[in-house]
Write a structure and sequence with these properties.
The chain is of the alpha+beta class. It has one domain: Oxidoreductase, molybdopterin-binding domain (Sulfite Oxidase, Chain A, domain 2, Alpha-Beta Complex).
C-alpha cells in the first residue's frame, strides 16, 4: 500500500524519549462500510457488548476486507485449534482462561537493525488498527469468515529495520506449560514454530492481530498478539507470539518438521493439491448445524489476485 504508515525508527523507549504515539498518525483510509457485513452481525455484537461490557478497540474499516458476512463471536471463539490447550476444538475455549497475557513481551532479533525485547504496548503504540474481515481456511477442510483487528506486519518490520540479507521471518509461540496444559504432553515439540518468506511477510494482507469483533483478542484465539496470513492454511497463522526472528535461511516450522509429506512450508490454500488423507477441493463452512454447508475451495483462499504473483514460476504441487 503506497500510503502505509512508516513512523520513526523503532527502539525500546528510554525515560524522556519520544514514543511512537508522538509520531503524526496516518491518514485514515476511506470507510468502505457503514456497518459490519450484515445487519444481523451488527445487532448481535451490540447485544453482546450490552450484556458483557468489554473495552472496545479504536478501529477503522479496511478496503482489504471481504464483503462476506462474518461468523458469530461464539462460533469463532468456541471452535478452533490451539494445541497448547488441547487437541479438541472446544479445549481452547474451556482452558485458555489460565493464560496470563499481561504483561507481554516479544523478542525481535536476527537480521534487524534494532533487535530487542519489546512490550506489547511498544509494539502497538502509534499504529492504526484496522478491522480486516478475512476468509479463514483450515487445512482440516473447514472455513469461516472472521473480523480480525490488527495492523500490517510490514509496519513492525519496517520499524525494526530489516537488513538486506534477510530472506525469511521466523515466529515462536509462548511456552508456558504451567498455564498451557497441552504443553505438558511430550508428544509434540514445543514451542510451536512458524515462518514466512520475507515477501509474504511484507505483503499488505499479512497482519498482526490483537483484536476480534473490535474487542481485545480472546485467549483461545491467540491473545494478546497473533499472525494472520489469509491466503494460507490456518496453521501458518501462529498464535500468542513471543519471538520474531529475521533469517537468511528458511526456518524450521513445527508441522513441516513433524509431517513434511502433509504440511509444506508454504501451505498456500490450493484446491488442486489434496492433503494425503483428504481432498482440499471443497470445504465445510462452520456453523451449518446438522446439515453443514460445503463450498468449493478457492485458490489462495480467494486472494489470488493479490498474491499469485509471489509464486510465479513455482510448481505449487512441489512447493505446497
Amino acid at each position: 500500500m503506497a500510503d502505509r504508515f512508516r513512523p520513526a525508527p523503532f527502539r525500546p523507549q528510554a525515560p524522556g524519549q519520544l514514543g511512537w504515539a508522538d509520531v503524526t498518525p496516518p491518514q485514515a483510509w476511506v470507510n468502505r462500510r457503514a456497518l459490519l457485513a450484515g445487519a444481523g452481525a451488527a445487532l448481535a455484537l451490540g447485544a453482546r457488548a450490552a450484556a458483557n461490557p468489554i473495552p472496545t478497540l479504536e478501529v477503522i474499516d479496511s478496503p482489504l476486507s471481504t464483503d462476506e458476512a462474518p461468523h458469530s463471536f461464539e462460533e469463532i471463539t468456541t471452535y478452533n485449534n490451539f494445541y497448547e490447550f488441547g487437541t479438541g476444538k472446544s479445549d481452547p475455549a474451556r482452558r485458555a482462561h489460565t493464560l496470563t497475557t499481561s504483561p507481554w513481551e516479544v523478542v525481535i532479533d536476527g537480521l534487524v537493525e534494532r533487535p530487542g525485547t519489546y512490550s506489547f504496548d511498544q509494539i502497538t503504540e502509534g499504529v492504526t488498527l484496522e478491522e480486516r474481515i478475512y476468509r479463514f481456511r483450515c487445512v482440516e477442510g473447514w472455513s469461516r469468515v472472521v473480523p480480525w483487528v490488527g495492523f500490517e506486519l510490514a509496519v513492525l518490520l519496517d520499524r525494526v529495520g530489516v537488513l538486506p540479507e534477510a530472506r525469511h521471518v521466523a515466529f515462536e509461540t509462548l511456552e508456558r506449560p504451567e498455564e498451557m496444559p497441552g504443553q505438558r504432553r511430550d508428544n509434540f515439540p514445543w514451542p510451536y514454530l512458524e515462518g514466512l518468506r520475507l515477501d509474504e511477510a511484507m505483503h499488505p494482507l499479512t497482519i498482526l492481530v490483537n483484536g476480534l469483533y473490535r474487542e481485545p483478542l480472546p485467549n483461545q484465539n491467540g491473545a494478546p498478539i497473533r499472525l494472520i496470513v489469509p491466503w494460507k492454511y490456518g496453521f501458518k497463522s501462529i498464535k500468542s507470539i513471543v519471538r520474531i526472528t529475521l533469517t537468511e535461511d528458511q526456518p524450521p516450522t513445527t508441522w513441516n518438521m513433524l509431517q513434511p509429506q502433509e504440511y509444506g512450508y508454504f501451505a498456500n490454500v490450493n484446491p488442486e493439491v489434496d492433503h494425503p488423507r483428504w481432498s482440499q477441493a471443497t470445504e465445510r463452512v462452520i456453523g451449518g448445524g446438522l446439515f453443514p454447508t460445503r463450498q468449493p475451495t478457492l485458490m489462495f483462499n480467494g486472494y489470488g489476485d493479490q498474491v499469485a504473483h509471489l509464486y510465479e514460476g513455482m510448481d505449487l504441487r512441489v512447493h505446497y
